[in-house]
Amino acid sequence: MRDVHIDRLVEIVGERRCLWRPHQVKAYACDGYTAEEGLPRAVVFPETTEEVSRICRYLYENDIPYLPRGAGTGLSGGATPTGGEVVISLARMNKLLAVDFDNLRAVVQPGLVNLTLTRRVSHADCYYAPDPSSQSVCTIGGNFAENAGGSHCLKYGVTTNHVVAAKVVLPDGDVIDVGAPFGDAPGYDLLGLLVGSEGTLGIATEITVRILKKPQALRTALAYFDRVADASDTVTDIIGAGIIPAAIEMMDQLAMQAVDKSNYHVGYPTDIEAVLLIEVDGLAAGVDELMARVVEICRRHRVREVRVAQSDAERALWWSSRKMAFGAMGRISPDYIVQDGVIPRTRLTEVLQKIDEVSRRYGLKIANVFHAGDGNLHPLILYDSRVPGEAERAVRAGSEVLRACVDAGGSITGEHGVGIEKIGEMAYMFSEDEIHAQRAVKSCFDPKGIVNAGKLIPLPGRCVEVKRAREIIEENWQILNSFPDQAAVQARGAFVQQPGREASTSAQG
Amino acid sequence: MPLQSKPLPAETADALYQATGLRARAVPMCTVHPGESSKDTCAVEAESEADVIAVLAYARERGLTVLPYGSGRHLAYGPPAEVPDIALTLRPMNRVTSFSPGDLVVSAEPGITLAELAAVLSEKGLMLPYDPPAPADATLGGLLSAGLSGPRRALYGSLRDLAISLRVALADGRVIRTGAKVVKNVAGYDMTKLFIGACGTLGVVTEITLKLRPLPMHRETVLVRGSAASLAELRSRIAQSTLVPSRLEMVWGADSGTDFVLAVDCDEPKRSAKAQTDAIRAMSRDLGLAMDVVEGEDADAWWVDLAQRLAERRVCIRLQGPPTSLLAAMPRAVEAASALAEPAESVTISAGGLTGVARVAFHPARAIFDRPAPLGALADLAAGASLDMVVERAPAEVRAKHQPTLAPAALALMQRLKQTFDPDHRLSPGRFWGGM
Lengths: 509, 436
Hints:
The complex is a heterodimer.
Chain A: H1 4-13, E1 18-19, H2 22-25, E2 42-44, H3 49-61, E3 66-69, E4 86-89, E5 96-100, E6 105-108, H4 114-121, E7 126-127, H5 140-146, H6 153-156, E8 163-169, E9 175-179, H7 190-194, E10 203-210, E11 212-213, E12 217-225, H8 228-240, E13 247-252, H9 253-261, E14 274-282, H10 284-300, E15 303-308, H11 312-323, H12 325-328, E16 335-338, H13 348-362, E17 366-371, E18 376-383, H14 390-407, H15 426-429, H16 432-445, H17 462-480, H18 484-490
Parallel strand pairs in A: 2-4, 3-4
Antiparallel strand pairs in A: 1-2, 5-6, 6-10, 7-11, 8-9, 8-10, 12-14, 12-15, 13-14, 13-17, 16-18, 17-18
Chain B: H1 9-20, E1 24-28, H2 29-32, E2 40-45, H3 49-62, E3 66-69, E4 86-89, E5 96-100, E6 105-108, H4 114-122, E7 126-127, H5 140-146, H6 153-156, H7 159-162, E8 163-169, E9 175-179, H8 191-195, E10 204-211, E11 213-214, E12 220-226, H9 228-239, E13 247-252, E14 260-266, H10 270-286, E15 290-295, H11 296-312, E16 315-320, H12 323-340, E17 348-352, E18 357-362, H13 376-384, E19 388-393, H14 396-399, H15 408-421
Parallel strand pairs in B: 2-4, 3-4
Antiparallel strand pairs in B: 1-2, 5-6, 6-10, 7-11, 8-9, 8-10, 12-14, 12-15, 13-14, 13-17, 16-18, 16-19, 17-18
Helix pairs in contact in B: 9-12, 12-13
């Protein structure tokens, strides 16, 4: 509906950069987490910090809820306007503002695509380190909001380790500078709080990041293991030998089957339990020796076969096979839910057994894709939404998997964020006091509680309610099943995926 | 609670003992933090989180202020504005509470020193890659609260990159855990960051969980001597190469004369380290610079010596900005600092060629104390070179005249955070910027 508020927004950004007709804003009803939707009141496309500030100030003064959005590739619903918010899209703020190659810093607008930054600095042999699998589409602003990770986190860290300063529009429209391009800023670490706050504390409009020099050399190996436990012990021993690989990724047999049916056919043996993708990097003089030690450690743990990539093409195929694993699930299952639990890596074998047990108990296949170096598990729970009750079972199985991660001393999310998807699980991980402290932080930034409300931090009472609701559902789900509406509510978390669509939007993980 | 109703420190000590069973006594504040007031405070030692909670509960009940600290080594980094009613040291809390070498994660109490922690870690071939310029008895909790970092930040990041989880006793009696004891976690706000560098003004940290790294298999440091300009050129060539320095500092001491030393450290395996040394040797030769190499324990000793020299001076100024500007400003920093120092030979400077953080340390001349801006020469230099200046350590009367300024909107936000976590301003009164 066009109303006086839309008129005011149009005054700030112009007609062409303010969408409000339902058919125009429908594309902004959710992000990469598609199980819940909400129609935004309007979508605005500012091009400057000044415009973002004026938009925020107007909306805040008039108590109109709003939320920021990047590329919309988030997997937890952080950019979904569940409350009919005004969506502030940063897509048009996509400039690389400055690069200082000598001092290794870049200043970017939030809408700049992650991989574009790397491409724009690669002529000087530089790159931007955090590499979520969606890096060809996701934005630095979205990475900032989600504290995005990737495959090289063990050695190179996540977004929060690479963002050093930012210009931020606070909920009420005030603009502040946080962090310091070099060294530490005086005062509390506001930047540290803002990174990973999922757009609930403010909007970064200029982001200063570290850029790194590309490693001189790297070596990539693929290792097949008959048993998961051997693969797991191999990872432990590699690190125990003082080697921090640039990446160690693991996939189980089911995940291998899926990716081998996709466009990236590697030809994994069908009777092995686990494959490891191991990459070491550093100075050319040393990488062969490092890789030789890695291969030797694999052999010590009964590896069936271990191969070192002989060409860039081979390495690229192996990485594509891994990075497209989520999308490839469409080849073996109509629907799946992806989870994002983290565990202390040394407890991998035990947690995988628990996941296997959950899989049996619920009668659902679970494929495991795993950043093995840092303990970040991505169990993919396969189901068929056409079979009555299966979506609900999948959601509950996913929840149990996360509980197993927390019980092992881990976390409910390593890089996908809480959003709306895992807000119920926050209560597994944090006490009421801990959630209260986080709500208090939210209030310091956003006393009205209208900026991306209902994301990340459960509202007062909500976590208790969710816990209770979950218990009630667990006790009565067979009955609830017969009510289609209830089933839809429970299907929260179900990532509905069309078979064969993997190449388009689901390059995540 | 009005000031006049506050009990004497000796009375507090007695009552605190009655209430908590903890040994407390009245001591002059200057024994907690040399150079401070000789007025008494009630000193008490916490041996456990339960002790911390008990002291905070007592303080809350009686309306008293509490200064949590470790060895008192970093109180100068944000010194308390007033003598606290209770000075609570966490130094006895020095246990390693959990250690999982395979996960590269350790948890320890805040009273532990880096040396005590390193002893436990090195047994399993691990290290905390963290080398702040601090005295040997500085505690992990104190360093965390001061938010200090050292040259290793160039490769491994600062403490805010290494700390992944905390336990914190809040002023209202609740205890929260922040983050998780796993290396990757994005559940909720990254609350760990809030308490790093907060000078104990938001809560009392009772446990710290850190990411670890394997001990390097080989240690090798290259030392190149030359003029600041030629070393800056060398720094640029190294920064633009694919070499992997773990530390890169341009250093000046009284024995350097007009020369500086560019120290480039390497934690890579031996074969790579040798290749790196060869590459730097070729660059140095090209620039006509002389080069030395120190290896193994000698390399470690060289860096420890630098850290100690910086840590032991009474004044330590941090300058920060783009490494190219920073290094270019160092000859003038030598000049400016030498004019403020007594003796002039006490000046030691280390400028991070990748971190962009320089420390200018010296013993201050008595004459500068009475000036309206005792460190004016350095402040002018910083302003002229577009560098930020932070007084990390200085006598209170010097420090008070060089407070950093914060933008009003950011300051207001920080004050709201302080008000939220410590509404009665009970913790570390006045230690934070803006008198928080």
